[in-house]
Amino acid sequence: MTDIEDMGIVWGAGVTCSLHNWTFDASSGQSDSTRFVIDTHDVKEIDGHVFVSQKPKNGHIAGPRRDFGGREMN
């Protein structure tokens, strides 16, 4: 299991990558720091259970994708 600190730091509506210091908008997945885009997903909590959509909600945003490990996805 990975600690949340290894994944990034949440700042308002953004997430900063702890490995690269790139900041991504939590809604669009776009970054001012890099050309890469991260996929964003709808998340719900119901009765203590967390549900995450399988399909990214920002699939219409163009740009090369990276996963949270920094690997290019396409």
TrEMBL record:
Gene Ontology terms for molecular function: 2 iron, 2 sulfur cluster binding; metal ion binding
Span of domain Rieske: 1-52
Matching InterPro entries: Rieske_2Fe-2S, Rieske_2Fe-2S_sf
Gene3D superfamilies reported in the protein's UniProt record: Rieske [2Fe-2S] iron-sulphur domain (2.102.10.10)
Stretches the record annotates as Disordered: 54-74
UniProt cross-references to SUPFAM superfamilies, sorted A to Z: ISP domain (SSF50022)
Organism: Linnemannia gamsii
Compositionally skewed regions (Basic and acidic residues) per UniProt: 64-74
Keywords assigned by UniProt, alphabetized: 2Fe-2S, Iron, Iron-sulfur, Metal-binding
Name recorded for this polypeptide: Rieske domain-containing protein
